[in-house]
Amino acid sequence: MPSPGYCGPVDAPSTRYAGSRDHQIAYQVVGEGPLDVVVVPPYLSNIELFWELPSFARLFGRLSSFARVILFDRRGRR
Description:
Elements: E1 16-20, E2 23-30, E3 35-39, H1 47-50, H2 54-64, E4 67-72
């Protein structure tokens, strides 16, 4: 049985890239709401892989039910 406030699974959003000199920073935005929640990844991360892990997908789904969730990868080359 789902937890109260959980709206069900969320499809992984498309990955976009923001430029920073000669590097690209991957980011995703999911959900809408009056709050912005910025997810700060651990030292090594892959925002596309997060969506394949059930616990992370549930967390992002819950957060996105009431807020705009912004995920980003650490700086890397595109």
